[in-house]
Automatic annotation (TrEMBL):
Residues 1-22 are annotated as: Disordered. Residues 40-293 form the Mannitol dehydrogenase N-terminal domain. Keywords: NAD, Oxidoreductase. It comes from Mesorhizobium cantuariense. Residues 1-19 have a biased composition (Polar residues). This is Mannitol dehydrogenase family protein. The keyword NAD applies. Its EC number is 1.1.1.-. One of its GO terms (molecular function) is oxidoreductase activity. It holds the Pfam family Mannitol_dh. Residues 302-482 form the Mannitol dehydrogenase C-terminal domain. PANTHER family: MANNITOL DEHYDROGENASE 2-RELATED, MANNITOL DEHYDROGENASE DSF1-RELATED.
Length: 511
């Protein structure tokens, strides 16, 4: 969130189209005429990750002359990003940081910013604009509103609202389905929906969720106008899958002050990131797309092997570092990863997860994990463990639980994978005790707190948490997962991370 001091800055000393012309020559600025850019992409969820990732790739395309792909950004909840960027004509600074260097680039691909709760009609107008051919999403896992079994949570209050208030939706589901219905009625081809969140088979998952939403809507509408929309969504709308990867820590006031000094003007919301950036996209865009492959995007027929490797090796180890780091008193990833015991655990976690990856996809896991180790050691990013810890119930199923269950099925022991689940539970329990009350959050915080207050025996409590989060719903190895996790949680409660790791043969320097 922008600081109050920066938000009060006058227009004359803020980054803008005018002031960007006078920035130091060392700072890259848009080389294209932004007034000639046509909005071809609507992005839902304009957070720091999008601005460090997809928006940067699109900026490269615009600079190459593909001016039909400007971005209209949509915030589904907060006005903070709009309030920060609109006085800056949509410009912001991308700071690419490694342990010894920092490169600054001003990104200009976001042409307009909308805030859905303020004006849902304006968002729908952008979505039904025939020039809009792609809609991208980074709304976080929890915003897909899935029930424990993975299907659409039809009882969620926002879903119920959107089904009853088609012209004033709150959710991504409501906006996308209403826009696709209007485009269908007008004879406008449907846009392609490109999910960029960390969901398994994210394109297919979103396709299923939106089809389920459309089925509910069809049932409500009956024969009124656009009944049968679900079949249109299922048959005529493209939902390519994608895999995204770039570490983007939260921006601090110290970052803003440093960037302002470099620019000579203030930027209300610069974005910090690392040099590494990866985007793998299923090449299925009936209405066209930017030539992303010219700028490092990997266009493929099947994203799944890349997605599995990223989710299970990068995201899985990130969650492990976050929860073990929090329980060990490490505030950032680089500090946690520098802890020899945690580093040894991560190596063992990778060794446990790698056999669950596709064998025939040509994945170079040795090079990938070596690169991850270098990225996690980047001292310039200060990526907070508490930031990564958010929404564990939504993230762990694809990052950790799926691998653990596959290990059990094949007869191997997921002792490191299941420690991550136990560490998440322990970190949730620690809030308000050894960790600050709201250090990180989870969609299940209220029922989790109620479970913790019941003083259940460890295995009964773990079973209740696993069932609440839907970690192994209907799986034959549910009980085995619970038993492994419970054993780790006993160690964490008795002797903290040091005892839990020692039980795995990993000794800390203090032990």
């Amino acid at each position: 969130m922008p600081s109050d001091q920066t938000s009060r800055a006058t227009t004359s000393n803020r980054l803008s189209s005018k002031t960007a012309r006078a920035l130091p020559a060392s700072i890259a600025t848009p080389s294209y005429d932004r007034s000639s850019v046509v909005p071809g992409i609507v992005h839902l969820g304009v957070g720091a990750f999008h601005r460090a990732h997809q928006a940067a790739y699109v900026d490269d395309c615009l600079a190459a002359g593909e001016t039909g792909w400007g971005i209209t950004g949509v915030s589904l909840r907060s006005a903070d990003t709009r309030d920060a960027l609109t006085p800056q004509d949509g410009l912001y600074t991308l700071a690419i940081r490694s342990s010894g260097t920092e490169k600054l680039q001003v990104i200009g691909s976001i042409g307009a910013m909308l805030v859905a709760p303020e004006d849902p009609g304006a968002v729908l107008a952008a979505l039904i604009d025939p020039r809009t051919r792609i809609v991208t999403l980074t709304i976080t896992e929890k915003a897909y509103l899935r029930a424990a079994g993975g299907r659409l949570d039809a009882a969620h209050l926002d879903i119920v609202h959107d089904l009853a208030n088609r012209e004033m939706p709150k959710t991504a589901h409501g906006f996308l389905i209403e826009a696709l219905a209007r485009r269908r009625a007008a004879g406008t081809p449907p846009f392609t929906v490109l999910c960029c969140d960390n969901l398994p088979a994210n394109g297919a998952t979103l396709h299923r969720l939106l089809t389920e939403f459309a089925e509910l809507r069809d049932t409500r509408l009956g024969t009124e106008g656009d009944a049968g929309l679900a079949k249109h969504i299922a048959d005529a709308v493209a939902f390519p899958s994608s895999m995204v990867d770039r570490i983007v820590p939260a921006t601090t006031d110290a970052d803003r002050a440093r960037i302002a000094e470099e620019l000579g003007v203030e930027d209300a919301w610069p974005v910090m990131t690392e040099p590494f950036c990866q985007w793998v996209v299923e090449d299925n865009f009936p209405e066209g797309r930017p030539a992303w492959e010219q700028f490092g995007v990997t266009m493929v027929d099947d994203v799944r092997p890349f997605e599995d490797m990223k989710l299970r090796l990068l995201n899985g180890s990130h969650s492990a570092i976050a929860y073990l780091g929090l329980l060990s008193g490490h505030a950032t990833v680089d500090r946690a990863f520098a802890d020899p015991a945690i580093r040894a655990f991560v190596d063992a976690l990778w060794a446990e997860a790698i056999p669950t990856l596709p064998k025939d996809a040509g994945l170079d896991t040795a090079s990938y994990t070596a690169e991850l180790a270098e990225r996690f050691s980047n001292t310039a990013l200060a990526h907070r463990t508490a930031q990564i810890a958010n929404d564990g119930s939504q993230k762990l199923p694809q990052r950790i639980v799926a691998s653990a269950l596959e290990c059990i099925e094949t007869g191997s022991v997921p002792e490191h994978l299941t420690l991550v689940i136990a560490a998440w539970i322990a970190a949730c329990e620690a809030r308000g005790k050894t960790l600050p009350e709201s250090h990180f959050t989870d969609p299940f915080d209220v029922p989790l707190a109620a479970l913790f207050e019941r003083s259940l025996l460890t295995e009964a409590m773990v079973a209740a948490v696993v069932d609440l989060a839907g970690f192994a719903k209907g799986h034959t190895e549910r009980q085995t997962l619970i038993e492994f996790t419970s054993a780790h949680l006993v160690h964490l409660r008795q002797g903290g991370v040091a005892l839990a790791l020692a039980a795995l043969g990993i000794r800390s320097e203090q032990s």
